[in-house]
């Protein structure tokens, strides 16, 4: 079975290594993703345990179309009944990179019309559309005049681990957080501190990495569970194998945030996946925190300036001063879209990696604190 596994920009190498470790074959890196081959067991395992995957797609049909009539006709040619029962609901998720087809919603509607008309012609009734929780989710990818239709085996994006509490103002994408921890080279043993932890996403992902806990083992819904060939027995066997890999090492993970409501959210999220005792979360100003260890790693997502306004440059200077005074011997990793503010840290970065936090282009910078 051929698979296309999507990720965030900058994580292609990490994802390829993850896929190889889980048993994927014929791995090829693409922009924001990896293509590989694997059997159903690998598909289930990948959805449960890949940390930097956003979606796992199974391509089923490719064609070319230069206008809407050709698109409709090509969609009508394919027998969709092998993948979608007339009594099931479905949705189409269009991703368009084309000068010919410029409106993704229009392309999705045209493709949907063709599918529905095929069922109506064949059965005199049609499957219903459900954009919220469809039984079958199709991904439509268009690059100029080249189309690929895939079955979305994940359903909701895989960053939706199920531990996040509602209410945080600007939560970090879980895949971004996991990728940052991996890119930092943290050894899973030394202290890890997030001095502006918010709802604790970085620390939660770090704890799961240290424990070898698959990020979606607590998740109940996957797209493949409604497929005709889905095997509950095989899935449960794979899930039990992944649960058996979890270990309980001694960890020193500390989160700090001045916002007590954010700290409460972080504790609730950790409790949802049974990590409440593994991570220490404190309400305090990070400038007042002094670690007891001589070495460790800082990974944090400070404000970029949207909320602090004109004081952002001074804030970054203060942050740099606090790190230099209180965290001697540590490596500090910061992600920020504010290049001017990063210059106020007062240290030269030893590594700088381009990432995206949502639509914001960011630098993920490493500072060695002597």
TrEMBL record:
Keyword RNA-binding present in the record's keywords: the answer is: yes
Protein name from the UniProt record = Putative N6-adenine-specific DNA methylase
**GO function terms (MF aspect):** RNA binding; rRNA (guanine-N2-)-methyltransferase activity; rRNA (guanine-N7-)-methyltransferase activity
A Pfam entry, by short name: THUMP
| Alphabetized SMART domains for the sequence | THUMP
Entries under InterPro entries matching the protein: DNA_methylase_N6_adenine_CS, RlmKL-like_Mtase, RlmL_1st, SAM-dependent_MTases_sf, THUMP_dom
Superkingdom per UniProt? Bacteria
Which residue ranges does the record assign to the THUMP domain? 42-153
Ordered alphabetically, the record's keywords are:
Methyltransferase, RNA-binding, Transferase
